[in-house]
Design brief:
Layout: H1 3-12, E1 14-16, H2 17-20, E2 21-26, E3 38-39, H3 45-48, E4 53-55, E5 57-58, E6 61-67, E7 73-78, E8 81-82, H4 85-88, H5 96-100, H6 111-120, E9 129-137, E10 143-152, H7 158-165, H8 169-172, E11 186-197, E12 200-216, E13 220-230, H9 239-251, E14 261-262, H10 267-281, H11 289-292, H12 298-308, H13 312-326, H14 332-346, H15 348-362, H16 367-373, H17 379-408
Parallel strand pairs: 2-6, 13-14
Antiparallel strand pairs: 1-4, 2-3, 5-8, 6-7, 9-10, 10-11, 11-12, 12-13
Helix pairs in contact: 9-10, 10-13, 10-17, 12-13, 13-17, 14-17
Length: 409
């Protein structure tokens, strides 16, 4: 087989793993035949490699189905052809082993068995303490009801339930990893949709968050949001902000909690956090329009921390978003003052580098040596980077402001 023929052969038997995988959260047997209940992963490189390709199959389909509440799991594969190892001396990729490495034990590969489990398992009852009840409107205007429950590793059923749901993060959060649930500093928040099935109240899991409660000297705690995921069938109807607000509300009354931080947030989570924090702080006097135009103040940082457990760095970001919202961008002078306020913060790392350079110059260090020691940038490069970073920030801020306007209206 020549090189061109080998390439055509490889392409014929190679599939995109993101396209091949199909998830379902099954409430009723009819959902199995309903394409609208299916959803795709955003990524699969943590399962099938960086290229997110699977070799050796034609028209491959990998079905990963969960019962909507209990999360009993079925994994099945279908394909129209598989590469003949004896004929072509190449081996098809193993489909099940990468999945079995991340799925909890006990999943079935029999669809009939899965259907039997679905019929017998009965209504699901959430574990833990009920913290919040809320409703949202679906895209068609219908009302959907949700409840948020919380617990820790000692809450009956929480560890095993988290073990079942955490597989999703590998498909929807980049660089995600499983957590050590034997550590008693973990706290879990699960959000469920409450619905009626065959005349009986039932629940379907919609998302969850994990929080690690770090120690803060001398006798305080600093909760850090580690993971937060709203499953695709529930995205776009405000569940993420409700879940995050519930997390805040659980910690705000606790005087031993200093502030709430976030571990390696994604762009989507940064936007969500900005929205929730701004919706909180815009009600505080230090963040009034009059005070915003005076610049960032210690009273803003203090009030944000005391009232909503927001750390100083995030309080500064909230100030910038709310100040942009209060700024008339068509007033050249007013808009310029806002840009200067933001760029002065963005310029701080460059100022620190300049100070390092001056110290080194005072020690008679050569220009070449200075460039090797510090992250040296020319004035033109610094201005270009500042401008680019500012424009990106303003775009991010405007996304948050657009959403804030909807709740104000």
């Amino acid at each position: 087989m020549d090189l061109q023929s080998m390439r055509r052969f490889a392409e014929k038997y190679t599939v995109d793993s993101n396209e091949a995988i199909e998830f379902k959260l099954v409430r009723r047997k009819e959902d199995l035949e309903n394409d609208s209940t299916s959803f795709k992963p955003e990524m699969s490189h943590q399962i099938y490699g960086e290229g997110e390709k699977i070799f050796g199959y034609k028209d491959l389909s990998i079905k990963i189905y969960y019962t909507a509440g209990h999360l009993n799991t079925y994994v099945g594969t279908e394909y129209t052809a598989k590469v003949d190892q004896k004929k072509f001396d190449v081996k098809a990729d193993n489909l099940m082993k990468p999945l079995s490495n991340v799925l909890p034990p006990g999943f079935t590969t029999s669809l009939d068995e899965f259907c039997s489990v679905l019929e017998k398992e009965g209504p699901f009852k959430p574990m833990g303490e009920l913290l919040n009840v809320f409703s949202t409107k679906d895209k068609d205007g219908s009302l959907r009801n949700f409840e948020v429950y919380s617990g820790d590793v000692d809450t009956e059923g929480f560890k095993s339930y988290h073990e079942r749901i955490q597989t999703f993060i590998l498909f929807f959060i980049d660089a995600a990893s499983f957590i050590d649930v034997d550590d008693n500093k973990w706290r879990f928040f699960f959000v469920f949709e409450k619905y009626i099935k065959d005349g009986t109240q039932d629940y379907a899991v919609a998302g969850y968050a994990t929080i690690y409660e770090y120690y803060a000297y001398p006798e305080a705690r600093r909760p850090r949001i580690s993971q937060m995921l709203v499953l695709p069938p529930f995205q776009g109807c405000g569940i993420g902000s409700k879940l995050l607000k519930t997390v805040y509300d659980a910690y705000i009354p606790d005087k031993a909690v200093r502030d709430i931080t976030v571990e390696d947030p994604s762009e989507d989570f940064i936007r969500l956090r900005d929205f929730v924090d701004c919706s909180h702080c815009m009600k505080l006097e230090p963040f009034s329009e009059e005070n915003l135009k005076k610049g960032f103040s210690e009273s803003m940082a203090t009030e944000a921390r005391l009232k909503f457990k927001i750390n100083k760095k995030q309080a500064r970001r909230v100030y910038e978003i709310l100040r942009l919202r209060a700024t008339n961008v068509h007033d050249e002078d007013e808009y310029k003052k806002f840009r200067i306020a933001v760029k002065s913060r963005l310029n701080i790392p460059f100022q620190k580098v300049e100070q390092q350079i001056k110290k080194l110059e005072g020690k008679s260090v050569s220009e070449e040596e200075i460039k090797a020691i510090v992250d040296y940038k020319s004035k033109e490069e610094r201005l270009e980077m500042l401008d680019k970073e500012y424009k990106q920030l303003e775009e991010e801020y405007n996304h948050v402001i657009s959403r804030l306007e909807k709740i104000v209206d």
